[in-house]
Automatic annotation (TrEMBL):
Lineage per the UniProt record: Bacteria, Bacillati, Actinomycetota, Actinomycetes, Micromonosporales
Pfam families: DUF397
InterPro entries for this protein: DUF397 (IPR007278)
Domain annotation DUF397: ranges: 5-56
Stated name of the protein: DUF397 domain-containing protein
Length: 62
């Protein structure tokens, strides 16, 4: 992932319910693409990697 650039998931549809991610090296930022100025979540890289691996494995389902 290129650093310091906001990216939208390639799996995002056209329904407007997307998140954007930015890798800053020391932290990974996540924000709502519809409200980019409303704030963001910040993850340390290891936590982001664990979170995305859990999602890819089908975890965190209701």
């Amino acid at each position: 992932m290129e650093r310091n650039v906001w990216r939208t998931s390639s799996r995002s549809g056209s329904n407007g319910q997307c998140v954007e991610v930015r890798d800053r090296g020391v932290e990974v930022d996540v924000r709502d693409s519809k409200a980019p100025d409303a704030g963001m979540l910040r993850f340390v890289p290891a936590a982001w990697t664990a979170f995305t691996a859990t999602l890819k494995a089908g975890g965190l389902r209701p």
